[in-house]
Amino acid sequence: MIAIGVVVILGYLYGTPLLYSGTTVPMALSTAIAFVFLGMWVMVGIGTQYWSFYLVVVLTTCIRIIRSFMPIIIVIVLVNGWLVANVNRGFP
Fold this sequence. Notes:
By secondary structure, this protein is an all-alpha fold. The protein has helices at about 1-15, 30-45, 50-55, 60-85. The protein is about 70% helix and about 0% strand. The protein is flat. The protein starts with a helix and ends in a 5-residue tail after the last helix. The mean pLDDT is about 80.
């Protein structure tokens, strides 16, 4: 649920919502945000049994390394995608 919301939000940020052309109507931005919050609420309700919440709560060495590098990797991937989507528009 969180992944669906994040993908749709990224589509709006890049200016290319999923299923933009055709007869289908893309998901609204407010619905995508609601999907993300609802998914986080469900994940917190389940607790440490959910693998991604386990990465936040447990304090092992491996989890600490993942927590330190994951935000950097996510930012690099998003910035790279945004640059490719926006800079390539100006060049033929």
